[in-house]
Amino acid sequence: MAESSPETDVIDYRAAEQLLAARDPRGAVKLLDSVIGRHPEHTAARLLRARAFFLSAQLRAAELEFTVVLEREPDNAFAHFALARTYERANRPEQARRHFRLAAALDPKPEYLAAARFDD
Predict the structure, then answer these.
(1) Which residues span the domain enclosing 20?
(2) 33 domain residue, yes or no
């Protein structure tokens, strides 16, 4: 096994981005597991792994990872939106609504505002 270095971790992170773009979330998770194992504080890698978990329908793992990201970055609108989508897929509408609304309050993007359904 090749020895890890900061350069190989960056390469693994970028490769995981490419795998996710190519619709191989499980492959992305495998690469990100080792990066996060060596750099548990790397929030961007955790966010990418959360997205990969979501895309591979590992909803509980996605929820946990998005929660870690939000503990570190409570103003991350995308993480709130993605966590809301995770709750939505898990049929937990009240929790989803809360995070959709937080996302929209933090960043009033049209897709966040539409999902927040402030008119309801």
Answers:
(1) 1-58
(2) yes
